[in-house]
Amino acid sequence: MQKIDLVDRDLFNPGHAACPGCQESLALRAILNTIGPDAAAVFPPSCGAVICGPHPYSSLQIPVFQTSLESAAAAASGLRRALNQRGKHDTTVVCFAGDGGTYDIGFQALSSAVERNENILYVCFDNEGYMNTGAQKSSSTPLHASTASTPGGKPSKKKDIIGILAAHGIPYVATAATGHMNDLIAKVEKSLTIEGTRFLAVLVPCLDGWGLPDDSGVSVSRLAVDSGMWPLYEVEQGHRYTLNHDNKTRPVADYLSLQKRYRHLDETQLAEVQAAVDQDWAQLRRRAAESTEARASG
After folding, report:
1. Most buried among 79, 88, 122, 144, by the most CB within 10 A?
2. Are 125 and 73 in contact (CB under 8 A)?
């Protein structure tokens, strides 16, 4: 057991519209309290926007700008520049988006912001589908997961958003999960010391969309990490890889068997998922080892 070292600054109000046991609200609370009150947030349409509440109401104690689904990173870029003009260079601009607004519909604006190296923190709450519109698949949905639009299982792998953004030469990109809260907090703290575009993908299991009990979000998040389905790592300047949890101790079956979206899997499909995870894990470990060697050699 690890003690979570987090001081609650009362930046996330009670009475919000999140589902019982919502992992996104848990992550949102931790991130807000780590950033502190000198911040402004951008929300595209997403579960986060629903949790935050309709304008002019808000469950957040910082300024909130709700924008269109495709323009979150562009809006955050404009907000950053407007604050700079007012001399508020130290105010953190943070964009909270879902995987649909990041991997898919908002990717053009995100790629452009990264290419310009806008000084923003972009947080993707990844629940692996369009959950607040009926649990349709996104390009973040994993291989063979059943969704409302792929009831027989998604035939393609999850998009490698971390690798894509790393290829832009982004200063800092990392993964995190609600089951490893101290790691999440440490990565937010690190991102606040870096100038330029920072991207954090946070796994937030959707209890309703994944078919999970209300009290299982944290334990399922830990299983995602332990099985290698969601490795915890960082990439700095596009090439320096660091593995933060260097143990893949559980088979993917332990993780998938808890979720209704995988109950249709046969042994062949399960083996395909395991093989894909093993391949990606081996590649990630190679990159991390190469980065360590390069740092050691100077």
Report:
1. 122
2. no
CA distance readout (Å), 245 to 81, 228, 230: 36, 10, 10
Strands 121-126 and 172-177, bridge-based pairing: unpaired
Specify the pLDDT at position 217: 96
How far is residue 68 from each of residues 32, 81, 138, measured CA to CA in Å? 22, 19, 18
Confidence grade of residue 4 (pLDDT, cut at 50, 70, 90): confident
Distances (CA, A) of 232 to 55, 56, 74, 132, 249: 35, 36, 27, 26, 14
Its CATH class, for the domain covering 23-297, is alpha beta
What 3-state class would DSSP assign to 22? Answer: coil
- Measured between alpha carbons, how far is residue 5 from residues 8, 23, 123, 182 in Å? 10, 18, 21, 7
pTM of the entire predicted model: 0.96
* Residue 164 CB contacts under 8 Å (≥ 6 apart), including other chains: none
**Cα 122 to Cα 32: distance, rounded to the nearest angstrom:** 13
pLDDT at 131 over 70: yes
Q: What pLDDT, on a 0 to 100 scale, did the predictor assign at position 22?
A: 95
Judged against a pLDDT cut of 70, whether residue 1 lies above it is answered with no
Three-state DSSP at 63 gives coil
Q: Angle at Cα 162 formed by Cα 194 and Cα 68, nearest 5°? A: 80
